[in-house]
């Protein structure tokens, strides 16, 4: 309560708000009064419209029904009642057409005879009737005549007449089942004219009534169909509002007239046409009324869908003895829309009047509170960090004047602080940051110089950082000694109190600061030292202000500046610490990257120093591209961040090799796994040789021919030695395996040896599980010397399958098995020592590189690292690995990496499995790769013309590799 009672508001706002509020309240009251009065008038007008519609409907019924009844009475005594032929009946066509012309509601005139003859004349007023009866274009009237033919069958003849009643078309007589003697209007006809209940006409599918009367001839009935379409037209004239509904219904809800005549007729369940009920017209509000009100004469007020409605139900007549009601309803909101508009306009007029007076009130109040208003605007600008507007407010009020001065000082101080923060925050280099801190501090404090000290890595000593002087002379801080805080006078007290301290430096001062006197060419300096403290309140350095005057900071302004500098020193300390931490993290990251690359190189002698040399080639080629003015490289430039991304990518381009089994990388023979299985095969052949010798001695013991047996044994041993030598040669993988060699392998494999020991014991559980794929052999077991067994197959785990829609875009031909260690299968490898499964595993290091690198949370400037590192096995023709990218899909740096990777692999001299290529040999091979569209032709030419290949060779290759070559021989001619 106290806070509410003590609230204070500006006088300008108080006066303006009071005037505006009173004016708006008055205007609102007048608008509401006008609205209520107008609403009453509009609702009364709606009732008058309902009455007018009811009256017009009654007149329509009477005006239509009465004349036609008179015409029927005249026709009932006319000669047409005695006409027995078509020609006789057509003699009365003139009178029939005259009646139809003068009574638009009459759809036809018809006469039925006691023998079943029937004659009807229709006026073809509508296109629908013309289309229904397929009338000629000039037809105005149509006559149907139904008689009994000579065969006792009823047939109908149809004639069409123009406006002059000339026959213009005649349709052949056709069979018909229509017999008027069974129609309700015939059966119900009396000597006095009467009408049927409203119903759906048989031929025209229109709603109406039939007026009928018995003629003076027995069994002759004259009738006319009277449509209710004119009632529909009347209803449509009284559409009060867009959503209003008006409908002509019977007491049981059957519909006879509606704004949309098409909706009156519906199809019943047995596919017959019938009149729609009130709820079947497609109107939600009429469906609601069909369920919720009784059809009787009454006024209606109800709520539908949350909106008020009003209306009435009035009886309009009893044609055919049926009570017809005119049901009319309208939404109140639409009826009162004009009243609402008047209310809105009244309120707008009120607002306009108020607005016209606002400037006057505003001007008067503003004159009173202008000084405070300007200060409030300035305060608002300060909150939005806008400091460009000077504060020049002058006031005779003492408090307002003091507030103006204080705000001016506050604005200036905040402005300086923010500029300094932006300057320091945008500086990435630690030395440059120190210079910025020193210079800005010197300018703010009006000092003659600033000196910074930073704590060393061991947090033991303070090392001189930067010295700045007002005359911008270059001062070398190296002449200053390192300070031990605990041993330096003044510094120990400074760190212990954590406050600024003033030291006077002259020839009798501490030796640590005396060099400053010569640097600033003075005999005396006043030093204001401020400790720099990080987030953990640990001292990380000193910020020292140097003044040549002995008194130092004395004026009020200088003391204010010192307070500001103390606040600044905290931010400066945090900025320095942040940059140091950032540099340390970058150094740690680079160390980890090079550690991983070194570990990959050290993992296998087959990769040598590959991961450490590829970055060197890549950077050389990238620099050459930056320096080149050739087409394709003119616009190529790398920023500092892009250089960082390229270096990281080149160091990590093979990081996926950490997942590649060492024995696959180092596989030197076809049968090698963790060990070379050629020794198993050798032992089998040793067994076969022993078997041959045993057989020999058994035959000798049994009295065999020694000479023949010696020859047989010698031949068998030579064969076994030759077979094994062939297998050993195939195992080396040095030559292409032709079809003949594979056939010989299969023949050798058919030789058998006898195993007497169980091969399922003493093995790992996984190998035992693989052996269980086949039935266990009884011992002794006969086996082939070379075989592909089920247990040689190592299945690929479910998670090792690479789906086609993988998130990395890999397009891989994945072998069915993870490994196939079948002996014949591996010895039959066409080239080299790797099977398809092992080659896939070797290449898998590329997919693993991309997967591993894309999992890392990169800063924005390093997000291209996975793409650069993972593209060096792609080719320019889109047949590379693992994404099958073409040249246009790859970045220029990724294409550089591909060239660097190939060139290093060709020229590496620390690979035990191959001899290093000379420069000319490597370039020749790469030119073939260029011709095959494996490497980028433009980059390969730049690689040659820029001399990168030789620059790298002189730094990393052996002297004997540095042969001479003519690069023009390898540059592709256009």
Note down, in words, how this protein is organized.
The protein is of the alpha+beta class. The chain folds into five domains: 27-76 and 228-353, Beta-Lactamase, CATH 3.30.450; 78-227, PAS domain (Beta-Lactamase, 2-Layer Sandwich), CATH 3.30.450; 426-585, 2-Layer Sandwich (Beta-Lactamase); 604-659 and 845-969, Hypothetical protein af1432 (Orthogonal Bundle), CATH 1.10.3210.10; 678-791, no CATH class. 46% of the residues lie in helices and 15% in strands. It contains 29 helices and 25 strands. Strands 1, 2, 3, 4, 5, 6, 7, 8 and 9 form a nine-stranded antiparallel beta sheet that branches. The protein has a five-stranded antiparallel beta sheet with strand order 11-10-16-15-14. It has a five-stranded antiparallel beta sheet with strand order 18-17-21-20-19, sandwiched between helices. β17 and β18 form a beta hairpin. The longest helix has 66 residues, at 11-76. The two termini are 93 Å apart.
């Amino acid at each position: 309560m106290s806070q509410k009672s003590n609230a204070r508001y500006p006088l300008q706002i108080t006066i303006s708000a009071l005037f505006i509020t009173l004016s708006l309240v008055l205007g609102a009251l007048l608008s509401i009064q006008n609205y209520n009065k107008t609403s009453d008038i509009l609702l009364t007008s709606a009732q008058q419209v309902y009455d007018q519609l009811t009256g017009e409907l009654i007149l329509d019924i009477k005006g239509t029904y009465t004349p036609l009844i008179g015409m029927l009475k005249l026709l009932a005594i006319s000669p047409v009642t005695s006409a027995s032929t078509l020609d006789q009946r057509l003699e009365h066509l003139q009178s029939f057409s005259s009646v139809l012309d003068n009574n638009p509601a009459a759809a036809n005139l018809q006469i039925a005879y006691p023998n079943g003859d029937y004659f009807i004349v229709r006026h073809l007023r509508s296109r629908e009737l013309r289309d229904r009866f397929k009338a000629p274009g000039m037809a105005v009237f149509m006559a149907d005549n139904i008689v009994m033919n000579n065969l006792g069958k009823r047939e109908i003849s149809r004639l069409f007449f123009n406006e002059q009643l000339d026959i213009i078309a005649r349709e052949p007589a056709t069979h018909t089942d229509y017999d008027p003697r069974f129609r309700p209007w015939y059966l119900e006809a009396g000597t006095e004219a009467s009408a049927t209940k409203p119903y759906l006409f048989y031929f025209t599918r229109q709603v109406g009534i039939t007026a009928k009367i018995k003629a003076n001839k027995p069994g002759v009935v004259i009738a006319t169909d009277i449509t209710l379409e004119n009632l529909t037209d009347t209803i449509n004239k009284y559409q009060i509002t867009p959503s209003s509904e008006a409908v002509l219904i019977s007491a049981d809800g059957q519909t006879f007239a509606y704004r949309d005549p098409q909706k009156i007729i519906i199809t019943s369940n047995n596919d017959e046409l019938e009149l729609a009920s009130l709820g079947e017209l497609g109107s939600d509000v009429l469906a609601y009324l069909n369920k919720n009100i009784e059809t009787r004469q009454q006024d209606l007020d109800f709520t539908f869908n949350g909106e008020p409605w009003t209306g009435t139900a009035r009886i309009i007549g009893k044609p055919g003895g049926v009570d017809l009601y005119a049901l009319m309803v309208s939404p109140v909101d639409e009826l009162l829309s004009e009243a609402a508009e008047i209310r809105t306009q009244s309120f707008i007029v009120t607002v306009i009047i108020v607005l016209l007076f606002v400037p006057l009130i505003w001007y008067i109040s503003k004159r009173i509170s202008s000084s405070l208003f300007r200060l409030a605007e300035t305060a608002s600008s300060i909150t939005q960090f806008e400091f460009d507007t000077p504060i020049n407010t002058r006031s005779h009020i003492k408090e307002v004047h003091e507030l103006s001065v204080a705000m001016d000082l506050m604005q200036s101080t905040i402005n300086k602080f923010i500029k300094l923060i932006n300057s320091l925050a945008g500086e990435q280099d630690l030395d440059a940051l120190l210079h910025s801190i020193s210079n800005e501090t010197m300018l703010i404090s009006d000092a003659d110089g600033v000196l910074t000290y930073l704590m060393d890595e061991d947090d033991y000593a303070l090392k001189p950082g930067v010295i700045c002087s007002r005359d911008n002379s270059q001062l070398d801080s190296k002449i200053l000694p390192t300070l031990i805080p605990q041993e330096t006078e003044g510094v120990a007290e400074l760190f212990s109190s954590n406050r600024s301290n003033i030291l006077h430096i002259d020839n009798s001062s501490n030796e640590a600061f005396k060099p400053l006197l010569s640097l600033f060419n003075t005999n005396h300096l006043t030093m204001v030292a401020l400790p720099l403290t990080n987030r953990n309140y640990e001292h990380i350095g000193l910020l020292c202000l140097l003044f040549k005057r002995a008194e130092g900071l004395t004026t009020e302004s200088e003391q204010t500046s010192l307070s500001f500098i103390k606040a600044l020193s905290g931010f400066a300390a945090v900025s320095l610490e942040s940059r140091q931490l950032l540099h340390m993290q970058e150094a740690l990251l680079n160390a980890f990257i090079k550690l991983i690359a070194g570990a990959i190189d050290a993992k296998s002698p087959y990769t040598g120093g590959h991961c450490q040399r590829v970055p060197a080639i890549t950077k050389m080629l990238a620099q050459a591209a930056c320096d080149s003015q050739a087409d394709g490289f003119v616009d190529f430039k790398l920023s500092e961040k892009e250089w960082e991304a390229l270096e990281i990518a080149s160091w990590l381009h093979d990081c996926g090799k950490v997942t590649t089994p060492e024995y696959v990388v180092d596989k030197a023979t076809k049968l090698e796994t963790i060990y070379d299985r050629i020794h198993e095969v050798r032992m089998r052949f040793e067994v076969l040789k022993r078997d041959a010798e045993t057989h020999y001695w058994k035959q000798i013991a049994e009295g065999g021919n020694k000479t023949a047996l010696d020859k047989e044994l010698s031949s068998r041993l030579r064969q076994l030695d030759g077979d094994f030598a062939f297998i050993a040669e195939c195992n080396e993988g040095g030559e292409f395996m032709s079809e003949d060699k594979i056939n010989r392998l299969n023949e050798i494999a058919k030789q058998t040896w006898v195993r007497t020991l169980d091969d399922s014991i003493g093995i790992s559980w996984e190998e035992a599980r693989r052996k269980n794929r086949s039935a266990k052999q009884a011992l002794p077991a006969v086996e082939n010397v070379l075989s592909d067994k089920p247990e040689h197959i190592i299945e690929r785990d479910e998670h090792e399958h690479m789906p086609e829609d993988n998130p990395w875009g890999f397009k891989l031909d994945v072998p069915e098995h993870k490994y196939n260690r079948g002996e014949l299968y591996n010895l039959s490898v066409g080239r080299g020592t790797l099977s398809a499964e092992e080659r896939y595993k070797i290449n898998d290091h590329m997919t693993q590189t991309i997967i591993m690198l894309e999992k890392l949370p990169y800063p924005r400037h390093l997000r291209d690292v996975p793409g650069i590192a993972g593209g060096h096995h792609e080719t320019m023709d889109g047949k590379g690995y693992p994404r099958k990218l073409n040249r246009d899909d790859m970045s220029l740096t990724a294409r550089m990496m591909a060239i660097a990777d190939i060139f290093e692999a060709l020229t590496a001299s620390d690979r035990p499995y191959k001899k290093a290529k000379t420069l000319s040999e490597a370039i020749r091979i790469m030119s073939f790769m260029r011709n095959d569209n494996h490497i980028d032709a433009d980059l390969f030419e730049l690689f040659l013309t820029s001399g990168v290949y030789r620059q790298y060779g002189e730094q990393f290759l052996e002297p004997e590799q540095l042969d001479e070559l003519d690069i023009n021989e390898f540059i592709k001619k256009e």
